[in-house]
Amino acid sequence: MDSRSVSWLYAFSVTMLSALGSALAANNYYCNGPLVAALPPTSFESSSTSSSSQSSYFAKLNRRDGGGGWSPRATDGQSWLQVDLRERVEVTAVATQGRYGSSDWVTGYTLLFSDTARAWRLYRQEDNVATFPGNTDTEGVVHHKLSHPIRTRFLRFVPLDWSPAGWVGLRVEVYGCAYKSDVADFDGRSSLLYRFNQKSMSTVKDVISLKFKSQRADGVLVHGEGQRGDFITLELHRGMLALHLNLDDAKLHPSSGHVSMTVGSLLDDQHWHSVLIERFNKQINVTVDRQTRHVRSRGVADSLEVDYEVGHQPDARPGKPGTFLRKNFHGCIENLYYNGVNIIDLAKRRKPQIYSVGNVTFTCSESQLVSSTFLSSSGSFLQLPLEPLTEGLSVRFQIRTWNREALLLSAPLARVPERLVLLLSAGQLRLTHHRSPLQRSDIAIGQSLSDGQWHTISISMRGLQVSLTLDSDPASTMELRDPAQPGSSILFGGCPPASTRDNCRNPTMAFQGCMRSITINNLPVNMLHVQQGLVGNHSQLQFDFCGIRDRCLPNFCEHDGQCSQSWSTFYCDCSGTGYTGATCHNSIFEPSCEAHRQTGSASGYFSIDPDGSGPLKSTLVYCNMTEDRVWTVVDHSSSRPVSVHGSTLQRPHVSRLNYSASAEQLRILVGRSEHCQQEVSYRCRKSRLFNTWDGTPLAWWLDQAGEKRTYWGGFLPGVQQCSCSLDENCIDMNFFCNCDADRQSWENDTGMLSYKDHLPMTEIVVGDTNRTGSEAIYMVGSLQCYGDRFLWNAASFYQESSYLHFPTLQAELSTDLAFYFKTMAPSGVFLENQGARDFIRLELSTSSAVTFTFDVGNGPMVLTVKSPLPLNDKQWHYVRAERNTKEASLQVDQLPLRFLEAPADGHYRLQLSGQLFVGGTTSRQRGFLGCIRALSMNGLTLDLEERAKMTPGVSSGCPGHCSSNNNLCHNRGKCVEKSSGYECDCTHSAYGGPHCKTEVSMSFESGSSVTYTFQEPFSVVRNKSRQSSAIFAQSSKSRENVAFGFLTSQAPAMLLTVSTYHQQYMAAILAPNGSLQIWYRLSRDKRPDVFMPRPYSLADGQLHRVQIHREGKDMYIKIDRDINQKYSLSSDKELNTIRSLTLGKVTGRVGMDEEVIQAGSKGFIGCLSSVQFNHLAPLKAALLNRGSSLVSVLGNPSESNCGILADKTSSRSQADHSEEDGNGKERLKNAEQSDSAVIGGLIAAVVLVTLCVVAVMTRFLYRHRHERAQPMAPVKEKEQQQQQHVLPPPLESSRRCVATADLDLNLHSAISVRDTRKEYFI
Question: What pTM was computed for the model?
Fold first, then answer.
């Protein structure tokens, strides 16, 4: 070969170096011809036949001769019918029929296919469903078009179910067409090299396609590279297809354009897999079988320059660099196309563009490795005999599984009960020599053997030594005391049911996986003889088939959850994601600050997730709850005043505001809020906002969409205006802004932006500070929003035929539905969405039951939660339903959560097509009568009010006192509708009183304690206690909300501890120096997390309030009003199955650390007030449930007003301190103060004091007369509130003025907490 030929040989290499692709050679658009009708009798085989007239040859569709079809023996437990199509063809459809003139037919079957009739593969339809529906009679033909065609020679029909009145009967037909292919076989040392027509080839578009069948898990399929560093490599790595691509010059841009990705799994299964690679510029699409991944190169270049090839035999091509050291491919490649060129066809015709290295043949040699599948984790086993008088024992076999625990081998030895046992334990091999029930020795090797890869295991017993070898690792040995001889048989995978004689028992579970290449004493086991019953014994084995399946492909774990699997299911690890649930679908965070207040939280930093289970992550905000409105505060990176000099319109000052939330998170947060605002403090000196001659903006800002805005105040977007023009108080009325007066003095154009669609401000530009003495100082405040407009978004349905309709629910793989409802009707459909066959429905099925029904193709699935109390009681009830690929769940109020597991191999895509009906159905029957509010689906809340405005029979909002965000009940109190008013149910609140605002306190003496014992999970499931079940449901998440107040002078002290049945605990203690410490031990094998937010003593005789809020690994601690800190725990595990909560002295707790035990032994002396743990208020529980088995009281803790009394001394200063600014940030203030403002303030103060004095006197006279008119009687909170509620308006307003002066009187009126469980209003 001349040098010129060699130069353009440098090109593209197919290594085993082999290649990719799958160009479908069968280009027949009408590939549906019958393939079975003309086959000879020798093409049919079966597992058995019941008689000669019912042999497999009579199994042709519509055939009536013989016995009218095929039927197996009645004793055939694994029957099958096999068809040999004589050559590889393309199969597009199958059809079945029952046996003519009988009661025999097949109602369900699976389809296996193979090229060799030895290694079979299961055909799976969409959703990975393997079962085909069969017949319902003998003559009907059931036709199934395959969702994806297959190319095969052999088909096997495996009946699963049959006629209930008869037996298996089958006639079949297969439809398709001929299939042409070009195949090359590579032995691991051979390759094909494709040469371009020039020295190098530069392309911006590449298409590579192929099919391959591999005998190894590793090997290079395609490789090409160029002189400047470009390369493309396609290889198998651990059974996955990996693509490596670089488009950039390696010297100029090292690794900048390098892309690596993997697709597929278990591709070394000796079956054909199709590959398609498409590249256009930087965009790359890779498809393996039916899975596609998209990736984009990060480099600079768009073209791929290939001119060098590298193989595993670099010496075969003179002058080529030998840098590529990966393994070559061992297997077959079919129809390899590179940019339209059929590489294998050129090689077969010996074209000069192809150079062959090693032994490349053009027929596919088949592997002799045949697998068997152990199907059951409890009943599978294979028992093989051993030759008598055998000296020693050697066993070798290969396994492939996902399970971490299994019995692999049990070999009884000659001396009973001596035996060898090989286990898979936590993914590790463990070989044990059992000499007696109490004497054993073992060795353990390897790790992660449950990785789905093939592993080779060898055991050898010779003389006094037993050795164990894994793969190619060195052998590990174990010494025996005496020489041992094998018994008469050996067991693989499990133990037979009656195996007590051999002392064989499955320690945990039998082997569930694939096994092949079994040799005993160097003799291979003939599995065909085992299958035919000629050798050994077996149960629940499937021969000539490896049924392993990657259940993490595709990955159904959402929000970056990590997928792991066993043989039969998958699991999602949601650690650190901020989500929980079977598929990490549910956010652990509340959607808004308003929702946090509903849970009883106070001001502080919280993570919120405005889109719930949607794609966006949570974000950290400050929730200011010191006012009636709850403000959400989002900070940004430029919160300090900025001084600007020397800017012009051509070279302006530009400042980008980077928020603690992403743009999309901010958009959803603002859209969810009722009102948002952002203050812009702007002071200027000889610096204009607008050009006074032509109005050109000299300063502006960008809104959330990046649009330019030139207004500087107000809630309506205007043009070129400031707050002073809106208020009509600009210093020069000829201008719309103070700064435009262009004065030498400092002027102020501070304004509040409040048009929601434009917030937040993302950039500010200042351009007029380049003149002498010109300067501007600005500061952009935090984004502040209040209200959750979706929390009370409601609609009322008052006609049974009325409904609201919305676009189709997007619920293919997972969906969650949540809402509140109240009604007096006994039943009704909340919502329904239907498809061609699938549907989803939520309804009030009876007056005390909610039912969730859906069908994804496996038949209707029904979940029902029954309440011990009626749900049509005109009160708000909460419903949450979720359905994903793993399970479905239904929650009603705080009743136990109900679950329903999805079938392991069933349909999982919920395909809906019609509109979503809310409050009714498509038939307009069984409609809902009542109110629905806060209806959210997959994190998005539907605007019921807006849709109700245009729908007859439905109205916006919902009547009643408890139907709006009016904050009637505080601190977790629940508003309950009454016929003539409402009540506050304070059951789950740590407070009492009319609005759940009255402190509940207890005084503790030395040795006193209060312990609340949580009911065990089985009690909760039986729904013995609504309260305990609520607590259990809440504690099942890695979330805690803890709040309490305390007053003490003693340290160390135990404030609160929570312990579980799994030796976990959480504790709040005072250390010996009086500092507060929070302890968390979530794992027994790890050290606890300890946090000390305040280093100095809190045992100072003052009342201190503590709030602890945990969500996963994030924990927020707030002490009084001056400490608010965030910490990170080492684990996000939940407190699993809580045992008890104790206040005060703790004794005898196992698993607690020494410091906590010491504090627990000291107990607590002082006052504990308003203690809350999630939904539990232990102080109230102790006072209301004395004598209950759930509450244990030691010593003499007593009800007290200590919390209220201690709180009075600091109430004024704390209120004044907190009202000014919830987020603690200073605002820009004007240095100049006018005397008129001071005088005005003094006058206002005098007037206020005068009004308060008059109000106090009026109230005193009114009460004095009222008390004289009624006899003295014990006053309870409910009665007092009834009196207060009928006060005239002047007296009601005066009550606020005299609140401080009248504290003692109000204190004595709250006599007993027991009477404040529910407070009624008229």
Answer: 0.79
